[in-house]
Fold:
Amino acid sequence: MGLFSKKKKSCCEVNVEKANETTDAKIKVLGTGCKKCVELERNTEEALKQLNIDEQIDHVTEVSQIAMYGVMSTPALVIHEKVVSYGKVLTVDELKDILEEEL
Structure:
């Protein structure tokens, strides 16, 4: 009877819980280490510096962990386990706006 009554969970609901086990960082850059991913991390560091926010950034490079967030295009930025950007390098000014809103 109850075979078909199970509620399906999306891949993100299930896997983000596992991804949380890897770090306590509020801010994560997702990407395999390419030039764009490194640039996003640097821009994020600069935005934090300009905002006088002392926050750790975790750079997640494992493809399996990146996929847990449902991200198919990197670089991506995650704040408080919420994907706020993917597939492009944000400018320092764009990042400042996002960080002020999300932190």
